Amino acid sequence: MADAALPNLDARPKGGFLKKMLVWLLMALILGGGGFGAGFYLSGGALSPSQEVLRLIELETAASEAAGDGEGGPKRIPKEMPEAPVFETRYHEFPDPLTTNLKGSRRFLQIGVGVSTQYDESVIANVETHAMALRSDMLAVISGFAEEDVEGTAGREALAEALKSAINARLEALEGFGGIEGVFFPSFVLQ
What we know:
- This protein has helices spanning about 1-5, 15-45, 50-70, 120-130, 130-145, 150-175, and strands at about 90-95, 100, 110-115, 180-190.
- By secondary structure, the chain is α+β, with helices and mostly antiparallel strands.
- Strands 1, 2, 3 and 4 form a 4-stranded antiparallel beta sheet that branches.
- β2 (about 100) and β3 (about 110-115) form a beta hairpin.
- The radius of gyration is 46 Å and the shape is rod-shaped.
């Protein structure tokens, strides 16, 4: 009878605790794997921010083209831009102003002279090399102008053109090429 009061240890199910732990572990792996798989599936189609911007631009461009290409509506035509070369302009200013009497006048003109070219540095080097001859030619041109010839913007432009022609003629005679494209007056005093 003493045996009846003690529980039968052999009647207890064996491995119950271990089975429960294995079931819980298996369920955790299934749920975790499912969550990971769902996250991977949902994020697999996502674009990077730069790819998303490009996609939106393409959609907007397609929508605007579709709106402009409708029947009866005007079509957008891209503007063709000419590819004109742009050249560097080089300047040279003669160091001392030129002073001479004007034709038929007691007044004289004192001007500072600068020249420009878009050719290479050899043109400016030629101007510097032949500065004395160019100054003489410019004085001869200036003294051929009357007082009324150099007044106003039109008169100054005419004087600049005459000086440009004289400078280029001298450079062509001495070097075989002129190359001066503009003459400017940093100072212009008529007294």
